C-alpha cells in the first residue's frame, strides 16, 4: 500500500477529552473516530488490526472444530422474555418496538437465539457435540461509555456456543476452548491471566475470565507471588479477581470481636494500649462528592486505607472522574459527628451505609482492626468477604505507600486488568428453548448441556496498545501490526536513484505471498520529520530507510521500532534478511 | 471438512410457508434459518457462500483503491434530522431512544455518518479522491419482509462512498466503480444488466442500477431486442427499468384527444367504426381486494390489459399475495355503474382513482386507446408517462397472450429482476456535514462532490440460486460454492480399501493451498441415497465417488453436478485432472 493512496488520518495533538492512553493513541494513530458517545468508526488502519485478530480467532476456533455462523443483531424480545432476561439483564439491554409494534432487542449476547435456532438441527442430525461461533457486532446500552473502545456501546465480539448430551462432553469442550483462548491471546501477544469467575452468578457451574493487564482496567487481579512480571508463567486459578471471588480461606483464621475502651481517643493510644502494629489497622475517610455534569444532591463516599497510608488527592480525583463524579470535600470532624455520632477515628466500613472504595494495601489485610462507627469501639480480627463484602479496590494512596506487605508475609501483586474473554458452563439454563422445539419428537427426554464462550475483539486492540507503547506511539507485535514493514525513501521526490530502488524493493516485497499485503511505502511529499512521526505513531514494527547516502554503499537501513536498533543491510541480501529475521515473526 | 464434524442442516421437505424457490432451497440446503419475519441466521454453509462473495467484492474494491472501514450500525438520529431524512426516509428507518433518552436510528445506509466522520480527515490530509467502503449489517424496518433474504429486515451490504474536489474526479471514480461492479457480478457468475435509474429521485445527478435476472424479482426490466438471452452482451443503458424511467421519446408522437360517440356501446363497434386494430386498445378491469391477515375495509384495484388479452386469475392472485392482499371478486357491471356512473367498456386508467397494475403488453403500447370513465367517451392517442404516469407493470395475462408485439414493430423482452447493486452521483447533497466540520478552517470555500455505491450481498446468494438450480437442488458456480468438491466414499464404513483411498485423497487435497479449505468428505454413516441427495441439494459442483468397484481398476469416478457428466479418472492422474479441469474455475 502507498501512503499517498491510503488514509493515515493521524492527528498531531491528543484530543483533550480522553484521559486513557489507549484511547488517545487510537485516535492519534488514525485507528478509530468517535461519532457519538460509545460509537466508533474503524478507519482503515484500525480495521486492519481488527481483521488480524479476527483471523487468529478463526484459525483457533477451526482447530477445535467450531463452525462459524452469523446471527442477526436484532432479536425478538419474546425470546428474552421467556428466559427471564428481558428484565434481569437490566438497562444495558436496548429494547425497541418496530413499525408493527413488535418488541425487539439489540443483542448483547445470543444464548436464547442460538438455542432456539439450533435445537431442531442438532437433534434431527444427532450432531453432538456442536460448537458454533460468530464474529459480529454487539450492542450494550452503557450508561456511561468510557475508555474509548474498551467500554463502548457498539463493539465486536466473538461469541461461541456449544451443545452436548452430557456434562463430560461439555467439560471436554470447555477445556479445549480454554486452551484455544490461551493460544489466541498468546498469539496476539497479550499479557493476560486466567481467573475463576464468580460461580454464584451463573448458578454453581464453572466459569473463567481471561484478564489482560491494562493500566486503566476496571478489574483488579491479585497475581501470585511467583508472578515476577512473567505472564506466561501464570497457571489457571493461580490468580484471584478481587472484586468477584472471596479471598482464599487461608487468610481468615480468627473471629471478629468488638473491643470497647472509652479511654482511647486516638490511633496512637490504640496501638500502644493493645501493643498493635500500625500495619494491622485501617482507617476510614468520608468524602463529599457530586456527579460531574448534573448538579445532583451531593452524596458521600467512604475510603478505606491503612492507618499509616496517605490518601492521594490526585488518584481519588481520577477515579471519581472515571465514574463521572467530582470531589467536593473531605468531610470534617463536626460534620462526621453530626452524620454518625462518632469521632472520625472510630469511622469504619461495617456500619457506614455509604459506598466504599478500598485501597490495595487495605484490601490485602486479614484479621485487621477497624472503627465501628461508635466512639470508643473498634472491631478486631475483621476479614473482608467474611465480615463485610470486599467493595471496589483501587490504588488510592501516595506511591510510597504501595508496598503490599502484611507483617512480613509475602503478598500478591495487585494488577489492574481488563476482561478480554469469558467462558461459561451454562448447564441446562437455556434448555427450555431446545425442548420446546422438539417437544413433539420422541427424543424429548434427552438433556442438553450448553456452554458459551466470548471474546471482546475491539477492546483487545485497546488493551494491546496499553501493553505496548512508548512516548512516540504504538509498538505493535508484528503479527497484529496494521502493516508489518514500511519503506521510507529519503527525498524520494528529488532523488531518482532512491525512487528507483524504493519502488523496486516495494514491488519485490509486494509479490511475496501474504506478506505483500502488509508492506507500506511512504511516498508522500511530506517533511521527513512528519513521515517518521506518523510511522512511529502508527507503530509499524519494521522500517526500511532508503537514502542516497546508503545506496552509495549498496545498503539500506533497517530500523526496529521497539528496540530502536539500526542495522545496515546490503541491498542484494535484503529479501533474505527480511525473510529470516523479520517475517517469520 | 468432514460432514461428520460439520452441520449440514439439510431438510427433507420444503417448509410450507415459502413460495419463492430461492428461499425454499436456502432453507432446505441448510444455508439459513428464519428466526423471525425478515431476520435470518446464516448457518455454516450459507456463511461460506457469503464470505466468498465478500472476498470477491474486497478484491475488486482494492483494485480501484477503495479502503475498507467499519462504521457503527447504530447512528445518532440528529445526523438524520439534519439531512432531512429522519422524516423523508419513511417508516423503514428504525428509530429508538436509548436509556439516556437520546434518539438513534439503525442504519439502512451511511451517507450522513460517513460525511461527518471523514470530512476533517480528508481535508486536513488533502486526500482526494477518497474512496471508502464497508461490508456490514444494515437494517430496514420492512412492513412485509418477503422472498426470504431478498427482502429481509437485517441484511449484509457493501456500501461505499467517495469524496472529490470536482465533478470530473467524481465521474472518473463513478466509471471505475461501474466497471468494478461489472467485474464483481461477472466473477460471481450472475446474469445481470445495468439500467439507468430514475434521475429525479436524487436531484438530476446520475445513477445506475445493477439488476439480476430473477423469476420472483420485484422489478421489471425491458431488455433490448438484440439481447438474445446473452447477458454478457448487455451494454450500459441498453436496458430500461419499466417502473422507474419514462419510455423513450420516440414512442410518443401524437397528442391525446377525447373522442365521443354515444352510438358505441361495445369494443367491436369501436373497432369497426374507427377501423382500429384491436392491438391498439386497452381495457380496464376493476377488482375488489382485501388485506390478507387483517380484515380491513375492502379496497379496489384497477387492472389494465390489452383489449384482446385474457386475465390470468392465478397470476393476479400471486401478485396480490406478494403484496399481502387477496382477491375478493371482479367488480360486476352493476357495481361499476354504481361506483363510476359508466359502463364497464368505458373504464379507463386516467380518471379512475384507484391503484393500478398494468400488464406488460399494455405497458409497451404507444398512442393507444382507453376508456375515459364516462360512457360513450374514449381517449385516443394516449401515452404512458405523458398522459398518465406508468404504474406498476406485471405479467397479468394468460401465457399465450404474452407476445410483446406492437403493430409489427419489434418489442423488447420483459424480464423480472432483482436489484443487486446501485451507484449514485450524489453531488453536494451531504456537503453541509463536511462544511460544518471545516467551517473554522481557511479551506471552507472548497466544494466536495460525493458518490455512493451499494451492493446487496445477502440477496445475491438468493438471486444466484434463482439463476442456478434444478429439481435436485442448487447448482453453484464453482467460485462461489460452499465447497468446491466433495469426496463420496461408497460404503466407507465397511470397505477398508475405500476408506483408505478416500482418506488419502482427502488428505492430499486438504494440503493444496486455498483449495484445501473447500474440500468436503462425506464420512457419515448414512444411506448412500441420503448422501447423494444432500450433496446435490447443497449443490457442490464437483463430486469424486470412490468405490470398491472403481478401485479394482485403479479408478475413481468424477461427476459434474450441473451437466451430470461422469468421467472415470485413474487414481494416479487424479490431482493432475482436478488441477487442470476443475480447480482453475
From TrEMBL, chains A, B:
Catalytic EC class: ligase
Subcellular location per the Swiss-Prot or TrEMBL entry: Cytoplasm
Superkingdom in the source lineage: Bacteria
Enzyme Commission no: 6.1.1.15
PROSITE patterns the UniProt entry points to: AA_TRNA_LIGASE_II
Main location: cytoplasm
InterPro entries hit by this protein: aa-tRNA-synt_IIb, aa-tRNA-synth_II, aa-tRNA-synth_II/BPL/LPL, Anticodon-bd, Anticodon-bd_dom_sf, Pro-tRNA-ligase_IIa, Pro-tRNA-synth_IIa_bac-type, Pro-tRNA-Synthase_IIa_type1
Keywords, in A-Z order: Aminoacyl-tRNA synthetase, ATP-binding, Cytoplasm, Ligase, Nucleotide-binding, Protein biosynthesis
Occurrences of domain Aminoacyl-transfer RNA synthetases class-II family profile (ranges): 38-477
A molecular-function term among this protein's GO annotations: proline-tRNA ligase activity
Catalyses which reaction(s): tRNA(Pro) + L-proline + ATP = L-prolyl-tRNA(Pro) + AMP + diphosphate
NCBIfam families recorded: PRK09194.1, proS_fam_II
Function: Catalyzes the attachment of proline to tRNA(Pro) in a two-step reaction: proline is first activated by ATP to form Pro-AMP and then transferred to the acceptor end of tRNA(Pro). As ProRS can inadvertently accommodate and process non-cognate amino acids such as alanine and cysteine, to avoid such errors it has two additional distinct editing activities against alanine. One activity is designated as 'pretransfer' editing and involves the tRNA(Pro)-independent hydrolysis of activated Ala-AMP.
Similarity section: Belongs to the class-II aminoacyl-tRNA synthetase family. ProS type 1 subfamily.
Subunit (UniProt): Homodimer.
Domain-level remarks: Consists of three domains: the N-terminal catalytic domain, the editing domain and the C-terminal anticodon-binding domain.
The protein's name in its UniProt record: Proline--tRNA ligase
Organism in which the protein naturally occurs: Candidatus Blochmannia ocreatus (nom. nud.)
Gene name in the database record: proS
Amino acid at each position: 500500500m502507498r501512503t499517498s493512496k491510503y488514509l493515515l488520518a493521524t492527528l498531531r495533538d491528543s484530543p483533550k477529552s480522553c484521559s486513557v492512553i489507549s484511547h488517545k493513541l487510537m485516535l492519534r494513530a488514525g485507528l478509530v473516530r468517535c461519532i457519538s458517545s460509545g460509537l466508533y468508526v474503524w478507519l482503515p488502519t484500525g480495521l486492519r488490526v481488527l481483521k488480524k485478530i479476527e483471523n487468529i480467532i478463526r484459525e483457533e476456533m477451526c482447530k477445535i472444530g467450531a463452525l462459524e455462523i452469523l446471527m442477526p443483531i436484532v432479536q425478538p424480545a419474546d425470546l428474552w422474555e421467556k428466559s427471564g432476561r428481558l428484565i434481569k439483564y437490566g438497562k444495558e439491554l436496548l429494547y425497541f418496538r418496530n413499525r408493527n409494534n413488535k418488541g425487539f432487542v439489540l443483542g448483547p449476547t445470543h444464548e436464547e437465539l442460538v438455542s432456539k435456532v439450533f435445537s431442531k438441527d442438532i437433534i434431527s442430525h444427532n450432531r453432538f457435540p456442536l460448537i458454533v461461533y460468530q464474529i459480529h457486532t454487539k450492542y450494550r446500552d452503557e450508561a456511561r461509555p468510557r475508555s474509548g473502545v474498551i467500554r463502548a456501546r457498539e463493539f465486536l465480539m466473538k461469541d461461541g456456543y456449544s451443545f452436548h448430551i452430557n456434562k463430560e462432553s461439555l467439560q471436554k469442550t470447555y477445556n479445549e476452548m480454554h486452551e484455544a483462548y490461551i493460544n489466541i491471546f498468546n498469539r496476539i501477544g497479550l499479557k493476560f491471566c486466567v481467573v475463576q469467575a464468580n460461580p454464584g452468578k451463573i448458578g454453581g457451574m464453572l466459569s473463567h475470565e481471561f484478564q489482560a493487564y491494562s493500566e486503566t482496567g476496571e478489574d483488579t487481579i491479585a497475581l501470585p507471588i511467583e508472578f515476577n512480571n512473567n505472564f506466561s508463567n501464570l497457571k489457571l486459578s493461580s490468580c484471584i479477581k478481587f472484586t468477584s471471588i472471596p479471598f482464599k480461606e487461608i487468610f481468615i483464621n480468627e473471629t471478629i470481636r468488638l473491643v470497647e475502651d472509652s479511654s482511647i481517643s486516638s490511633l496512637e493510644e490504640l496501638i500502644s494500649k493493645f501493643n498493635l502494629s500500625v500495619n494491622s489497622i485501617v482507617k476510614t475517610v468520608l468524602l463529599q462528592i457530586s456527579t460531574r455534569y448534573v448538579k445532583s444532591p451531593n452524596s458521600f463516599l467512604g475510603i478505606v486505607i491503612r492507618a499509616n497510608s496517605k490518601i492521594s488527592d490526585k488518584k481519588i480525583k481520577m477515579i471519581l472522574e472515571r465514574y463521572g463524579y467530582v470531589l467536593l470535600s473531605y468531610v470534617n470532624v463536626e460534620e462526621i459527628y453530626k452524620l454518625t455520632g462518632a469521632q472520625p477515628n472510630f469511622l469504619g466500613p461495617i456500619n457506614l451505609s455509604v459506598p466504599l472504595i478500598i485501597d490495595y494495601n487495605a484490601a490485602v489485610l486479614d484479621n485487621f482492626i477497624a472503627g465501628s462507627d461508635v466512639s470508643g469501639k473498634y472491631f478486631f480480627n475483621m476479614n473482608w468477604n467474611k465480615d463485610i463484602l470486599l467493595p471496589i479496590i483501587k490504588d488510592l494512596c501516595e506511591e510510597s505507600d504501595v508496598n503490599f506487605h502484611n507483617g512480613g508475609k509475602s503478598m500478591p501483586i495487585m494488577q489492574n486488568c481488563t476482561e478480554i474473554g469469558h467462558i461459561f458452563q451454562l448447564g441446562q439454563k437455556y434448555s427450555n428453548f431446545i425442548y420446546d422445539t422438539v417437544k413433539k419428537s420422541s427424543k424429548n427426554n434427552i438433556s442438553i448441556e450448553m456452554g458459551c464462550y466470548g471474546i471482546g475483539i475491539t477492546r483487545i486492540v485497546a488493551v494491546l496498545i496499553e501493553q505496548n507503547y512508548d512516548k512516540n506511539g504504538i509498538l505493535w507485535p508484528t503479527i497484529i501490526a496494521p502493516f508489518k514493514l514500511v519503506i521510507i525513501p529519503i527525498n524520494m521526490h528529488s532523488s531518482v536513484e532512491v525512487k528507483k530502488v524504493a519502488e523496486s524493493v516495494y514491488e519485490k516485497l509486494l509479490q511475496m505471498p501474504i506478506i505483500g499485503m502488509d508492506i507500506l511505502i511512504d511516498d508522500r511529499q511530506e517533511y521527513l520529520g512528519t513521515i517518521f512521526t506518523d510511522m512511529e505513531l502508527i507503530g509499524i514494527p519494521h522500517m526500511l530507510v532508503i537514502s542516497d547516502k546508503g545506496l552509495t554503499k549498496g545498503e539500506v537501513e533497517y530500523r526496529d521500532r521497539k528496540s530502536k536498533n539500526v542495522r545496515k543491510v546490503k541491498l542484494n541480501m535484503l529479501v533474505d534478511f527480511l525473510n529470516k529475521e523479520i517475517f517469520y515473526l
